[in-house]
Structure formats: structure tokens, C-alpha cells
Amino acid sequence: MNDLLFLRPPFQSEIPNSWKFSEVKYLYDILLGKMLQPEPRRADDREVPYLRAANVQWDGVHLDDLQTMYASDEEINSSQVMEGDLLVCEGGEVGRAAILKGEIPPDTIIQNALHRVRGKNGNNVGFLRYMLQHIASKGWFDVICNRATIAHFTGEKFGELRIAYPEPAMQAAIADYLDRETAKLDSTISAKHSLLNLLAEKRRALISQAVTKGLDSSVKMKDSGIPWLGEIPSHWSMVTLRRLITSLDQGWSPVASNQPANINEFGVLKLSAVKSGRLIYEENKALAFDADIPTELIIREGDILLTRANTPKLVGDVAIAKSDHNNLIFSDLIYRLRVCLDKVEPEWLILVLQSDIGRGQIEAEAKGSSNSMVKLAQNQVLGLLITNPPKAEQKIIIDFVQAEIYKLTNLISSTELTINLLQERRITLISELVTGQLSVENCHAHS
């Protein structure tokens, strides 16, 4: 073998003395799948199911939406998969890998967006899968595959990847231990995500109840005249948004840097800054290069910002400016609303637009050519129906809801922090074991 094989991989800085170095191709058999063939080319070509990169995720190989292509018997025999195969993405999120488990449809093959990996001489594919996850977590695939262009983890690059490894029995022990421990962590993380969903639903239900029924359960109700809304308090009215605002302006996107603007530099607010009623602008503003900044687009205290283009679940997200931002304008993917302060509190509109009635209208009105991006026209925003109690009652409801949201936000933040810590623990555990910094024996001793 070439002496380069014995160079220490940069993602495995220190390893036990008993471990060896090698290129992956000497330890595992790597096969790139078949190029997509939508039509038969020969009389004996057969239509068979195939796996593509989208089927392979870090949490496993998903077999619920297999597509089909044509292949010859020879190609089927060579590209066919079986339980226990390691499948690795050649493109997209390169290096993403999972082991094939469960019942597999007969004659299932892989497309050329995937590598099929099988161990040689007892080398364990589970160990390699965790090694690839470690490499991905350290960002080394960006280097290996040159992310400046379209990334491809070719068979050549994969085969020449140098790793340090223990003998096969220890590889299997490491993989088995990580299977058990990551499953426990994943279960806990999943439970925390479920809690986040429940808290988000509770937040939305709280807002929706407050802005459609008020806080007094004994108040007299009336039919709103809108089937999907039902009854509202008898002293409330329903109005279109255009009757509650003085202006609706679309932003502007000058030539800007990818770098965030400093506090004294002119910035352009990004879509990601408008989030669930809050303006998160510190790291979500781009440095503007154009000299002729339209000062009429500078964000002022009380301005309501609404995303006019985004994914279906995020379009129409809103935020309110709590102060003047003299060096900040909003991009052309954002609308700015200024309200009639004698008719409505800005925070009231923020709540209504986040509620079920607000989101229902926004998601019904938003149009687009794909599910990834939809847009709201100005007339659609102006036509949104808004519940409108007296201003004094608006303030009471706003104060109550904001106090409850504050409690929920603290719970959400602590849950998100716990998830981040669990994910970091998972990554660290994998990295320490596949690099030999932590031994399975020590893990068992301290468990």
C-alpha cells in the first residue's frame, strides 16, 4: 500500500495504539447504483423498485415511497440490495448514510445517487456508518467534496477516504453500543420535540380563543356571519384589515453583503427576522451596499412587518418593531403595516394574524407555483377579516395573552436547550467512540 494510507486522518486526531489506518476501499466493497432508466431499452428489461438519496436519512432507510425504473437481469443482480447493506449518499447531503433494515420489496436496486457498502473480511458497516456521521458532524465532507461546486462523494473519493479502525470484533462492539445509546437519546429527543409541538399548539389555541371569544365566558355572543368563525362577543365587530391601517408598503432589496450589518451600518432586514410576533433582527440583517437608501422604508416603532413570500406555513408571519431602527430597512419580501392607533392596538393585529382565523385566511389566500414558495398580494392582505373589540378591551386581552405567552416561551426555550444538549451529547458520544478517545469497556464500567 501507498505510505499515504498511514497518514492520520484529520477527523481522527488521536487513536489507540492497537488501531490501524487504511483507505475505505480495502475494508469495504463499494458499489455505485444504476443510472435512472425510465423506459425499457431491451426486450427483457423489467420494471423494478429503486432507492434514491431521499430514501436514505440518518435515522434509517425509508421504504414507504419507492419509485421504479427499468433494468436488465444483470443490472438487477449487480445493484440489488439486501437487509444489512449500508447505503451512502453520493450527492445532496453527501455522506449521509443508513443501514437497510426490515422487509425489502423483491428486486429492489439503488440509483446512482447512492453507494451500496458491504464489509470485507468481517469489517462492520455499522462502525463505518457512525464514522461517516462523525465526519459529517466535523464538516469534513465540505472539504472532501469541494462544496464550492455541486458536491459529489464519488466512488473514488469514498474509496480513498482514510480512516483509523479497530479489529472487526471491536468495530461491532462500538456499533452495537452506539445503536443502543443513540436509540435512547433519540427517544428522549423525540419526546422533547413532541412537547415542543404541544406547547406551540397551546400557544396558538390560547391566542385563537382570546381573539375570537375574549376573556369573559359569560359575555353575550352573536353570530359573526362568517361560517368558519362562528360566534363572537356581541359588542365586537368584524372589519377588513384595510380599515385598521394607514399604509401598507412593500420593502426593497438593494445589493447587499452576506455579512450581517454592524450597529452603525445600514442593513436590510431578512425574512428570518420576522418570527412569531417578534423582530429578531440582530443576526438577520444584511449589509447594504447601495448608497441611495430609501429613507421612507426605515423601520419605526410600532411598525408591523409581515412576510409576503415564504413557504406556506411561514408566509404571513408577523413581528412588531418595539423601537426605531434608523439604520434598518425591510426587504422586498416583507410588507410594512402602519395602524390607525385610534382604532386598534398594533399588538392586537399581531395576535389576530397569528391565530387560527388569521393563519387560516393567510394560508388560503397565499398563491404560488410550488409548495416551497407562495406569495401574498397586497389586496389579499388588505382583505383579511379581523375581529375588532373596543380598544380598552384589546389592551386587557393583550396583557393577559402576553403574560401567558411569556410562560410558554420560557418552557419552549428550556425544552429547545435540552434538545440541543441531547443532540450535542449524541454527536460527542459517536465521535469519542469511533475515534477511540472513549472505549466501550469504559462506557460499560460507568453505565
Question: Biggest sheet: strands, sense, closure?
Answer: 5 strands, mixed
Q: Please give the alpha-carbon distance between the first and last residues.
A: 40 Å
**What's the CATH H-level homologous superfamily of the largest domain?**
DNA methylase specificity domains
Q: How many domains comprise the coordinates? A: 2
- What count of helical segments does DSSP give? 10
| CATH topology value of the largest domain | Adenine-n6-DNA-methyltransferase TaqI, Chain A, domain 2
From the alpha-carbon coordinates, what is the Rg to the nearest angstrom? 28 Å
**How would you classify the helix and strand content by structural class?**
alpha+beta
Mean pLDDT score: 90
Helix content: 25-40%
- Principal-axes geometry comes out as elongated
The parts where pLDDT drops under 50 for at least 5 residues are: 1-6
CATH architecture of the largest domain: Alpha-Beta Complex
